[in-house]
């Protein structure tokens, strides 16, 4: 590097490991150990570096105990076959630290163990399982298709192979009150192709509350009570009456 160094001062620019006995590679004016240099090259290529051999992984990596590897460094715990990126990591003895007990299995041997696979991350589910939409899920991976928040045991609604929380299901497919824009949890009053909370259905002129027994008319796409309607000009009332008789009113459901 065109300079003199104490042995303890000549360090990898990234990981700070001493380089005098291990050798180094000069990269963009920096001294890097072989492992860090491989990481820099992999980052430029958008690839992973194997945690065991420190070589660049050209194909799909195998993730094991929080690190990534070339799959061919491992064999199935049961049958001994060389593994590929589809291998499954399983905690062999519950109750102990995961990194001390995890083992790898080929896909065939794993399927024989009957351990469910998460429909979201495609990893084994070793603890609590959520079964919905014809699949199994980690609790934290079973989420609303709209807001992506986990249900954590709360009620969900299914439509066309997707799950939704109550708010977004009703927002997308159900009834929102025309006045308060909130999900209508109780009885629904529907009229003029709109929905109201029963206590929000009122005359658009005088704001008097109305119910299923109240006679009303449609004016400018809004409901008008009989008292306000009778104050309208005769010709307007005649036209509104014809429209009202042609469109039957719906009762609460």
UniProtKB/TrEMBL annotation:
Q: What is this protein called?
A: LIM domain containing protein
| All residue ranges annotated as the LIM zinc-binding domain in the record | 1-43, 116-175, 176-235
> GO terms for biological process?
cell-cell adhesion; cell-cell junction organization; positive regulation of integrin-mediated signaling pathway; positive regulation of substrate adhesion-dependent cell spreading
Residues forming coiled coils: none
| Cross-referenced SUPFAM superfamilies | Glucocorticoid receptor-like (DNA-binding domain)
Q: Which SMART domains match?
A: LIM (SM00132)
The entry's keywords: LIM domain, Metal-binding, Zinc
Family matches, as Pfam families: LIM
